[in-house]
Amino acid sequence: MGEGQGEGKMKVLGINGSPRIGGNTDILLDKVLEGAESKGAETEKIILNKLKFSPCQECESMRDDGECVIHDDMHELYKKIKDADILVLASPIFFGSLSAQTKMMIDRFQCVWHLKYMLNKDTGYRKKKAVFISVEGSKRNDFFENAKRIVKNLFATIDAEYQGELFCSGMNDKAGILKHAGCLKKAFELGARIVS
């Protein structure tokens, strides 16, 4: 069943860019995945903070096949993203944009960006749907927009069509989102919608 074949289940990959397990981003991502599962999807969640990977080194000896020359946990993540039908990227807002973990992952797609836009070659990433979810402590919508621009660049690079977003502001306390039924309901509905 892990290959997305046989039963024909949609494979939804959730990527959590928050270092806080059981926090608002984690809870919101779980709700999106629950919504996807309610429509029969197979889901998996990756927590970036548990992976061992380095930041992009802007290698001069960049390969011409889109493969990163750094060998670490990112190589398994590249494969999981390629295999997914739907990608759900979740990050809290830190200093007006994405978390360091999320940005570090995105920067490691420089090899794919180079292949696609500089060498004009097929990246091997098949078309998929993708959504972005984010939480932040203040009520600064411009922070969400900053993060969204970066996420949209990633999605374009990996041929993922931006299908929507869910932004929940005013979330400072750990797991405080549990008091916001409206956000949780929207997250579940988003998960169900992207699979339908």
Q: Would you kindly provide a written description of the structure presented here, covering whatever features stand out?
A:
By secondary structure, this protein is of the alpha/beta class. It has one domain (19-195): 3-Layer(aba) Sandwich (Rossmann fold), CATH 3.40.50.360. The chain is built from six helices and five strands; from the N terminus they run βαβαβααβαβα. The chain has a five-stranded parallel beta sheet with strand order 2-1-3-4-5, with helices on both faces. Helix 1 (24-38) packs across helix 6 (181-195). The longest helix has 17 residues, at 141-157. The radius of gyration is 16 Å and the shape is globular. The two termini are 20 Å apart. Mean pLDDT is 94; it is low at 1-6.
What is the CATH superfamily label? Flavodoxin domain
Largest sheet: 5 strands, parallel
Number of domains: 1
Structural class: alpha/beta
Q: Give the neighbour order of strands across the main sheet.
A: 2-1-3-4-5
Name of the CATH class:
Alpha Beta
Reading the helices and strands in chain order gives: EHEHEHHEHEH
Strand fraction equals 15-25%
Sequence stretches where pLDDT stays below 50 over 5 or more residues? 1-6
Predict the CATH topology: Rossmann fold
Q: What is the 3D shape? A: globular
Rg from Cα = 16 Å
Q: What is the distance, rounded to the nearest whole angstrom, between the alpha carbons of the first and last residues?
A: 20 Å
DSSP helical segment count: 6
Average pLDDT level: 94
CATH architecture label: 3-Layer(aba) Sandwich
* Percent range of helical residues: 25-40%
The total of beta strands comes to 5
